[in-house]
Amino acid sequence: MSATPPLDWAAHFARLADSARDPRLQAYYRAGAPAADTPLNELPLLALDVETTGLDPQQHAIVSLGLVPFDLRRIRCAEARYWVVKPSSELSSESVTYHHITHSDIRHAPALGQILDELLTAMAGRLMVVHYRNIERGFLDQALRQHLGEGLSFPLIDTMELEARLHPKRQPGWLGKLLGRQPTSIRLADSRLRYNLPPYTAHHALSDALATAELLQAQVATHYSAATTVGELWS
Amino acid sequence: MQIELLEIRDHLNRFPPFDNLPEDSLDAIARQVEVAYFKAGTDILLYGAPIHELHYVRSGAVEIYRRSGELYNRLSEGDIFGQAGLLRSNKVRFPARAIEDSLIYFIPGALFGQLCEQFDSFAEFVEAEGQSRLKSAVESQGKASGLIQLKVRKLLGRAPVCASQDTPVQQAAQLMTEQGVSSLVIIDTPPAGQAAAMVGILTDRDLRTRVLAEGLPGSTPVSQVMSPNPVTIQADDSVFEAMLCMLRHNIHHLPVVQRRRPIGLINLTDIIRYESQSSLSLVNSIFNQSDVAGLQSLLPDLRGTYVRMVNDQATAHMIGSAMAGIGRAFIQRLLELGEQQLGPAPVPYCFMVAGSMARDEQLLVTDQDNALVLDDRFDPAQHDAYFAALAQFVSDGLAACGYSYCKGGIMASNRQWRQPLRVWREYFSQWIEQPKPQALLNSCIFFDLDGVYGEIELVDNLKELLADKASASPAFLAALARNALNRTPPLGFFRTFVMETDGQHRHIINLKGRGTAPLTDLIRVHALACGSRAQNSLERLDDIGKTKLLQPEALAQLRYALEFLSMVRIRHQARAIEDGLEPNNYIEPDKVSASERHNLKEAFGVLSNAQKFLRFRYPGQPG
């Protein structure tokens, strides 16, 4: 259970639809957000992962995005999307070793602005699911500010935050430390292991999106129920 | 836009039937897959529910049930299910439940249908129920081997040179010289209008050893010096069978007949031309060795021959027969050498082998199991010292050549197993008439028996006694059946849940102890019940088939299971030799390929079902 009372995202989206200037953003907000008491099993979901040139949305930029539509029953690979985009900031060599997207990969890639249409259409009417919300939220917001002159806000379920709730005391106590216990990791790969999900290649936006979708299915199957309301999980 | 779902594509690519699909088909599947997570204990498919997708286990474990609720199969990573319903009524036939947290891929039925239509191998794999998948795995083995496909007639060059049985040997030798042949087929002189029949064979060697060396005149009729009633082979038999026949009888010339009419003659060199470094040439070298050290030096050749047969995709039956033939040759040569040292035997005897060599199912890792059956004129006080020495010589020689001493003491060097026929008949009578399962555990090895050297009739006498008495003794058969049920297949063989661990605590499956051995045990019980005199398991299955004791499908399943389990064992040993390790019978399931694992599970399933039938047929068994 999250500490803050659930946001009324549906009302917020209605206001944003009115105040947005860009027609694509207006269309996105008009598709609406679910009411907080909607059961999870009725919700169309969209797992999203972005790979970036660094961790700070102000300085760094998106290099790839992966999307996988799903719900609690099925993950639909047929509708998955993946883009490599030309980042607005330089690729650093550290980030290249991380996500393996190189200068030659992005030479002919579109700028993010060119895929925004498709991205917003894919997102419309679906609740976003990410692992570590600060990245996806921060970078998408910043990218839209750059390309459209106005930001983007959206509700999401953060599978990492769900893991953090399940493991509130991740640091081992003094006895645990003495016994050499490691802190409980809530990183994507480590979280998946706890649900016996197979290891995947990390830091590929599409693989990570798929991995995140599977993780949410596993978390709900293990700790929640299909009737759990979205208000209990989102932020 | 190309969506790269490499995680999915690359995983499918590792498992049958997807591993044989072209890249673009794999991409197409990966692009259309749906995925779902199932917590351990949740149902995936319910009986009778509509089904429109092929299911694929990406991770975890799934149990498949019969409608009755009985466990049908246990699946793990890379296995598929749901195809039975998809192929027929689009209703679930076998319900499925996750028994571990599982990730399942769903492949749309339409795509599944396309794959079946486009790729025969895919269709065969998914349509295969039960034995048929095992069947195709077994049948692909041996296909590549030329020997089993090549008919003897293909090796025949010219028509045989024939001479009638009253031809003088000098004239016969002239004929052979004129015709440039090293052997003659000797025929009778039939009444007018009838075809002549073959009565013997005369070779260069016969002329040397039986005519010249004996100082016989050139006028001697060939009928006196020929080898009468020669072993023959049918023209349509395979070259492989010809090879086995030569191995078994240690002969170098084999007349080929069409029904009864001799149409040619093949000799060792004909086959060796096709099979250089063959098991036959090894047998030849065995007989050319003049001492134990020489025989011992052939050990690398023995292993080389074995590995080469495996790499040539010979069948388990071919390899088992060839290895048994080579083993026999070692024994025969050792006995010849032993007789040279110790002098001729004081009374006739037969050197008998038991177990896998008698069944023609020998592999590399094998004990020597042998015995001596002596003529009833045997007098222990006078003669036993000789036979004890001979037996010891053979036993030590075999051990030097890699056939380790039998831990159970089943060796002719052991006085108990060096007895006249009369005592052997008592042994067998007692085993059969007063069966005690515990005692039979030790003597069971003698229910596969074969004479290798000497007066073969002595052992044939015991074979007949066993076949005749066993089929008439329900108590004996029941005791044997009980012993045959002692060892069960590892049905728990599944991912990491293997029942045994080896000395280094690795999970292992004993392929012999939990596979081929209980299978041959079970076949032996049925064969003896049918009065079969055959020793080889496949020949025993043929005999069982004639009596309708088992259904043809059940027999076919047993045949495939035996061949497959033997082949896995054989390949495992061949790989060990190639890697410079000591071959053994233990496989680590983790290291088994996915397709081999599928077939192993099926083969173990066949064994388990056959054991159920045995228990049903001989009730009152414990367990």
UniProtKB/TrEMBL annotation, chain A:
Domain Exonuclease: 44-225
Top-level division of the source organism's lineage: Bacteria
Alphabetical keyword list: Exonuclease, Hydrolase, Nuclease
Gene Ontology cellular component list: cytosol
Gene3D superfamilies reported in the protein's UniProt record: Ribonuclease H-like superfamily/Ribonuclease H (3.30.420.10)
Database matches in InterPro entries: Ribonucl_H (IPR013520), RNaseH-like_sf (IPR012337), RNaseH_sf (IPR036397)
Biological processes, Gene Ontology terms: DNA metabolic process
Any one Gene Ontology molecular-function term assigned to this protein's record: nucleic acid binding
Presence of keyword Transmembrane helix: no
Listed name of the protein: 3'-5' exonuclease
Species, as recorded: Pseudomonas xionganensis
Lineage: Bacteria, Pseudomonadati, Pseudomonadota, Gammaproteobacteria, Pseudomonadales
UniProtKB/TrEMBL annotation, chain B:
Cyclic nucleotide-binding domain boundaries: 17-93
SUPFAM superfamilies: cAMP-binding domain-like (SSF51206), CBS-domain pair (SSF54631)
Domain CBS: 156-218, 226-282
Top-level division of the source organism's lineage: Bacteria
Gene Ontology MF terms in the entry: [protein-PII] uridylyltransferase activity
Gene3D superfamilies xref list: CBS-domain, Jelly Rolls
A Pfam family annotated for this UniProt entry: CBS
InterPro entries: CBS_dom (IPR000644), CBS_dom_sf (IPR046342), cNMP-bd_dom (IPR000595), cNMP-bd_dom_sf (IPR018490), Diverse_CBS-Domain (IPR051257), DUF294_put_nucleoTrafse_sb-bd (IPR018821), GlnD_Uridyltrans_N (IPR005105), RmlC-like_jellyroll (IPR014710)
S-adenosyl-L-methionine listed as a keyword: no
Keywords of this entry: CBS domain
PANTHER family: CBS DOMAIN-CONTAINING PROTEIN, CBS DOMAIN-CONTAINING PROTEIN CBSX3, MITOCHONDRIAL
Designated name of the protein: CBS domain-containing protein
Organism field: Pseudomonas xionganensis
